[in-house]
Every structure is written in C-alpha cells, then in structure tokens.
C-alpha cells in the first residue's frame, strides 16, 4: 500500500534492469527486459546514464523506508492520513529570507537543498532520530559522459529545431496577409509572444525539472499542488505579458511616427492577449506531460524538458497569432466591437488564475516577486521585434523573415538547457548565496568552456551542436522551397558565423548570470531563463539583420526565391 504514497511505482519496478560495470556513474552494459507498452520507453532508457537511474531508484526505496511504522501498541497510522498531515505541516512552515534579517517568508530555494528529508520536510526530533539510520547518504549529481549528454539532448534539440523551421515558414507565408501588410506593428509582437516560451514555458520546465531532481515531486499531493499552482501562475503572467507586449508595440511602432488608430491598437491588444493565453495553456499541458513522463522513464528532465517546451511552441504561437489577427482584421468594419470583447473576456479571467496560484506557497511567492524578469524580457524581445519590423519593411531584406524564428529559437533552446543544468547543480551542492569555488572571482569566457566546474562539458557539447543543427535546418528550408534567399556559400558562411557568435555569447552570459543570481539569493530557475531567451531574440534578430545587410552590400542578393 505504501508504494503509492511518496514514491511513484515506476521507481520500484523499472522497465530496464541496469547493471553497473567499470567506473561509477558511467555508461555500462544494459540488459533491457521486454516492456508491455512498446519499444519507445526502452529506446529512451538506453540513453539514461546508470548513475541517474540509480539515483531515482535510491530515492524511491528511501521514500518506502520512510513510510509509517507501528507504535508500541501495534497501531500503524494510515499512510494517506500521514501524507496529508506531512503536506499540511510542510505548507504551514516558512523559512527565513536571505535578504531580510528576521523577516520570515517562504523561500523557493530553501526546500530544494539536499539536506533534510527528500521532499524538504522537517520532522520532530524523534522522527529525525528514527529516520537518520535509514536515510541514504547525501545525494550527489549523477555524472554524465559527453556521449550520454549528447544523446539525450540531440533528439529534442532537432525536434525543437524543426518546430522553429515550421514557424519560420508560417511567418514567411502570413507576412503577405492583409492584417500583417496593413498593421505591420504585428511583427513587433512576434518576438515578444514567441519569447513567452522562454519567459514562461522554459521557466516552468526548469523549475519542475529541478523539483524532480531534488525529490520535491515524489509525493503525489505535493506534485499536483506544485503543477496546478505553476500552471495557474503561468496563465496570469501570459495574460499580463500579452497585454503589455501590445502596449509596447503601440509605443514602439506608432508613437515615434505620429500615427495612431484606436481600432488598430485594440486589435493588437486583443490578438496579443488571446494568443498568449491560448498558446500558454496548450504548451503548459504539454510541458507537464513531458516532465512527468521523463520522471517515470528515468530520463534527466534538465536535458529534454526545455527543448521540448519550445519544439512546437513557436509554431503554435505564430499560427494562433496569424489566425486571430486576420479574423479580427476582417471584423473591423462589420463588427467593430469584436476586438474589445475578446480582450475584455481574457483579461476578466485573470483574477481566477490569481486565486488558484495563490494556494501553493511557491507559486504564491512568484505571483508577487516573479514579474521583474518576465516584463524586462518582454521589453528586450520587443526591441528585437522593432528591428524585425524595420527590416521586413525593406523589400531588399525580405528574406530575413523565414530565418528569424530559427536562429532565435535555437539559441534560446541551447542556453536554456545550460541554465537549467547549472541551476540544478547549485540546488544540489550550494546554499542560496554561496557559490562553488570555481565560480568565485572575476568572470572570464574561458571558464565557461575550459574551466573546472561541473558544466563546462555541457557548454562544449551545446556549442558543437550549433553548426550541424543549423545546416540541417537551412537545407530543410531549402528543400521545402521556402524563403526569399538562395543558399549560396557566402550566405551560409555569414549565417553560420552569426549563429555561432550568438550561442557563444549566450552561454557566456548564462554562466555569469546564473551564478550571480544564486549569489544574490534569487532562484535561477525563475529569473535567468527569461533574460537569456530574450537576449537570444535580440542578439539573433540583430545579428541576422546585420548579416542580410552585409550580404546586400557585397552583392549576394535576391528577393524573389520561394515566391
């Protein structure tokens, strides 16, 4: 009966029996037993380092050992009641903030430290004494070889890449629709709304991945409270950010030129809010499924969750934006109040999501303190959107449209993986405010790729994926006969140089930013990825615009390919 409380049964009966041989934590021979659900879990299982699988099994067995025990009269407490009591005690407890002396409030990073019980709970002195002898040794991060890491990353990376390619092809088509031709400020919305996957989806994936790795989702009650609270929080943030992105588009697009049309402004707000709300809900459900599935199959969610979060995020968001914008544009004359009603409906749902998200302490904390990175990232992405709007307005640079989601999406995906991995490492080994020895002192770029830290090899692997990944995506666009640019050698050289420079800068910024945020007591899972993906959008769009301008000046130009 106890296997269902505090420990998923998949950790007790793994579909693969793993034998360790050679060095601990490395790859070894694997003997896979037949599984009734098909060959897909077995295929994923072969990509899992034995150290990670062993960690998950030890956590599951430890949770069973910590189950209810009979007292002196032979009475055994009901495990369901015990779990509910522990959850209530856990929610009721607070921790001392690092920034306020004596001010007591919930801190998201505190329960994720390896000390204490597996789910971050503290028991009575008697319970601690009884559990001390049964508690496994302090857990360490399982070591991954570069091959194991690449195998886990490459499939979701390619899937996410093809998603951005599809988004670029959709954007190349819809740029000729009436709504996009006559309300060009919609292009300013594109990076900001596509950036929601970095502001919200990837942040959610990183938070839940860390929660899985440190054992916070072993308890079913805590797991679903964490999931529901974070999904509700994400809907609040998506609605607010969608509205603010529309305001930024109005300011950046129309005010400097002295042009303003109220019906167009309302259409922008309606399309932005509706797109952000619907796309965020769909991607949130997909993200939760990926995290739970990774947990059950033993795959490290840090390696797969953030790329899959973006795999179809760009395509879904762009398709919804184009459909809603064109539909509302067609209704401007016949139903002038349609845009206002749509905007008011989605904004009216915001208080409902706020009430739901306030029920869980972690999401309640972020409901009040998590707006700075999300809004700042939206402003940064909007500046990239302004660059895209001005570039698309130049008929000589029309080919940039199809490649913008690709270079922005790939850069954001790779840096999100690195940020999530560094954050998980810090949650395992360091207290908030304290950083490892290798991260102290002044930052220098060589530390990211050649240092002695735990994540320099992942930075090398991610940087090496840039060139082959972009070559595959470039030829996919070429084979689909999309875009307005011929794949000449000079174009490919300039494009790949821009993509490589973008990812190199992002990985360096991530290494500096994550440690800096941890040193200041902020949780990088909630604060770093929005900044990094927004910087990826800005750097990608700016470098791509400069590349196309350079190609035009040297004579490598054509604007009618794919028409």
From TrEMBL:
- Region Disordered: start-end pairs: 67-143
**Known catalysed reaction(s)?**
Co(2+)(in) = Co(2+)(out); Fe(2+)(in) = Fe(2+)(out); Mn(2+)(in) = Mn(2+)(out); Ni(2+)(in) = Ni(2+)(out)
Membrane topology recorded in Swiss-Prot or TrEMBL: Multi-pass membrane protein
Q: Which residues form the SLC41A/MgtE integral membrane domain?
A: 190-323, 404-546
Q: Where are the transmembrane segments?
A: 147-170, 236-256, 262-292, 304-325, 337-356, 368-388, 400-417, 461-478, 490-510, 531-554
One GO cellular component term of this record is: plasma membrane
Please list the GO terms describing molecular function: inorganic cation transmembrane transporter activity; monoatomic cation transmembrane transporter activity
Q: Its function? A: Acts as a plasma-membrane magnesium transporter. Can also mediate the transport of other divalent metal cations in an order of Ba(2+) > Ni(2+) > Co(2+) > Fe(2+) > Mn(2+). Acts as a magnesium transporter.
- This protein's name: Solute carrier family 41 member
Q: Which organism is it from?
A: Salmo trutta
Instruction: Provide the taxonomic classification.
Output: Eukaryota, Metazoa, Chordata, Craniata, Vertebrata
């Amino acid at each position: 009966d106890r296997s269902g409380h505090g420990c998923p049964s998949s950790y007790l009966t793994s579909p693969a029996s793993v034998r360790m041989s050679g060095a601990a934590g490395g790859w070894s021979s694997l003997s896979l037993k037949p599984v009734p659900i098909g060959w897909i879990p077995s295929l994923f299982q072969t990509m899992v380092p034995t150290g990670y699988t062993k960690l998950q099994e030890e956590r599951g067995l430890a949770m069973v050992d910590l189950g209810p025990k009979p007292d002196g009269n032979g009475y055994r407490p009901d495990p369901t009641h015990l779990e509910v009591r522990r959850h209530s005690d856990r929610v009721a407890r607070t921790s001392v903030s690092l920034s306020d002396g004596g001010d007591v409030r919930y801190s998201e990073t505190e329960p994720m430290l390896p000390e204490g019980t597996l789910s971050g709970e503290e028991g009575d002195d008697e319970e601690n004494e009884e559990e001390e002898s049964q508690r496994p040794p302090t857990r360490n991060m399982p070591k991954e070889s570069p091959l194991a890491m690449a195998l886990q990353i490459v499939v979701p990376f390619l899937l996410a890449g093809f998603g951005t390619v599809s988004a670029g092809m959709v954007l190349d088509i819809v740029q000729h629709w009436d709504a996009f031709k006559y309300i060009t400020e919609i292009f300013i919305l594109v990076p900001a709304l596509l950036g929601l996957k970095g502001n919200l989806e990837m942040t959610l994936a990183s938070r839940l991945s860390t929660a899985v790795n440190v054992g916070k989702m072993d308890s079913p009650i805590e797991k679903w409270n964490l999931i529901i609270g974070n999904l509700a929080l994400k809907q609040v943030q998506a609605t607010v950010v969608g509205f603010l992105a529309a305001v930024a588009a109005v300011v950046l697009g129309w005010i400097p030129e002295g042009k303003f049309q109220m019906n167009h402004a309302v259409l922008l707000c309606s399309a932005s809010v509706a797109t952000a709300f619907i796309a965020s809900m769909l991607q949130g459900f997909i993200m939760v499924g990926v995290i739970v599935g990774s947990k059950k199959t033993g795959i490290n969610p840090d390696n797969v969750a953030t790329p899959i979060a973006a795999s179809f995020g760009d395509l879904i968001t762009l398709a919804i934006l184009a459909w809603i914008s064109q539909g509302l544009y067609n209704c401007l004359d016949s139903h002038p109040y349609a845009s206002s009603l749509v905007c008011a409906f989605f904004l009216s749902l915001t208080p409902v999501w706020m009430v739901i998200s306030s029920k869980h302490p972690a999401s309640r904390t972020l409901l009040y303190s998590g707006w700075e990175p999300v809004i700042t990232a939206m402003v940064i992405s909007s500046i990239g959107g302004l660059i895209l709007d001005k570039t698309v307005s130049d008929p000589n640079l029309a080919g940039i449209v199809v490649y913008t989601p690709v270079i922005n999406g790939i850069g954001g995906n790779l840096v999100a993986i690195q940020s999530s991995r560094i954050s998980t490492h810090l949650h395992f080994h360091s207290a908030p405010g304290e950083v490892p020895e290798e991260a102290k002192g002044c930052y220098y770029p060589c530390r990211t790729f050649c240092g002695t830290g735990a994540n320099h090899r992942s930075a090398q692997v991610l940087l090496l994926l840039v060139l082959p990944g972009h070559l595959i995506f470039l030829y996919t666009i070429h084979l689909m006969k999309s875009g307005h640019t011929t794949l000449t050698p000079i174009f490919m050289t300039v494009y790949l140089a821009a993509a490589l420079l973008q990812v190199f800068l992002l990985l360096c910024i991530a290494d500096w930013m994550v440690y800096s945020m941890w040193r200041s007591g902020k949780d990088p899972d909630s604060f770093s990825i929005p900044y990094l993906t927004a910087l990826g959008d800005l750097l990608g769009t700016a470098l791509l615009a400069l590349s196309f301008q350079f190609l035009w000046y040297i004579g490598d130009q054509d604007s009618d390919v794919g028409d």
